[in-house]
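User: Can you model how 2-acetamido-2-deoxy-beta-D-glucopyranose sits in this protein?
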Amino acid sequence: MFAIPCAAAALVFSSFAAPVTAVSYSLTDNYVGQSLLDAFSYMAIDDPTHGRVKYVDKATAVANNLTFASNDRAVLRADSTKVLNPAGVGRDSVRLQSNKEFSTGVTVFDIRHMPQGCGTWPAVWTYAEPWPNVGEVDILEGVNDMPYNHATLHTLPGCAMPASGRNMTGVSVQDNCDWTINGNAGCGVEIRNPASYGPPFNAAGGGWYAFERTTAFIKVWFWSRNDASVPAEVRAGSATVNTDSWGTPVAYFGNTLCDIPRFFGNHRIIINLTFCGDWAGSVYGNYPACPGTCVDYVNNNPAAFTEAYFDFGFIKHYD
Ligand SMILES: *[C@@H]1O[C@H](CO)[C@@H](O)[C@H](O)[C@H]1NC(C)=O
Ligand SMILES: *[C@@H]1O[C@H](CO)[C@@H](O)[C@H](O)[C@H]1NC(C)=O
Ligand SMILES: *[C@@H]1O[C@H](CO)[C@@H](O)[C@H](O)[C@H]1NC(C)=O
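Assistant: Here's the modeled complex, given as structure tokens:
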């Protein structure tokens, strides 16, 4: 008896409750070419994930052309010239950290090329010290030319994602974001589009990654360079964007089982490229295309890393 009137009432209510004003964001930070490199600090630190890497300082990076800027390009690369002494330090590379901290808003990355190759472990992500108290958001990360990108959150205990009902095109591989379980795998979403990562990403001319963070959710989008569905405002890097028009995200992290503002604080953007280590090294043997051991490969085959570079068109943040 009640079912029909209640459903009718709910429909009427929801049509009144539906948002009528779109959320529009305005450009606050526009990093292109040299201004992109200038907005970041070079972190010449030991890789906390034990990679076969030597993160160099700015002077070394510029002198060796490991970072390079032109009007519309910012390139970050690893060394592809040196055979390494097995008893010495790892392969030269860079780890950049944004000088500014961000919280809510939208960030768009126009990426023409990302590092590829056996042993590589590139990442574009956000976090702040002390990890993991204010959370970590991984936008683009993978190892050894794996088939797909993973977008992943890592948090203190108490943040999880529901097993079903998430409006996204990617596939959840872990639902609990708690860093203390599953070997700190985090709550990852696999972006089941080959163009989302590695050689196919590069073959297509890269594309755009974007994420939106509010107090209620974190959404990630990806469009390959030639996708018809890329919003014109993303392609153009417009002064305002409206994510309501962007379609279903590749990854959706909502707040039904995670109080987003409690687990995510102000973050810096990090761009880094390491080799082997806790992830790329530990699963290296699962990649038949990757010869020998990871560390030997990285030590002895500099020319294998000529494609181990990021080429950014821009990074833009909107609030
Ligand atoms: C530095 O790298 C850029 C980007 O890959 C390249 O275009 C340029 O020729 C390089 N410069 C030198 C001196 O090798
Ligand atoms: C980058 O550094 C962070 C730690 O600071 C680490 O968690 C991440 O795995 C590193 N990734 C790469 C690609 O170096
Ligand atoms: C999922 O999100 C898209 C894009 O915002 C929207 O058009 C669609 O109606 C949503 N689907 C569901 C089941 O909520």
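A couple of observations from the model: The chain has one domain: 24-318. Residues 11 and 30 are 42 Å apart (CA to CA).
User: Helpful, thanks.
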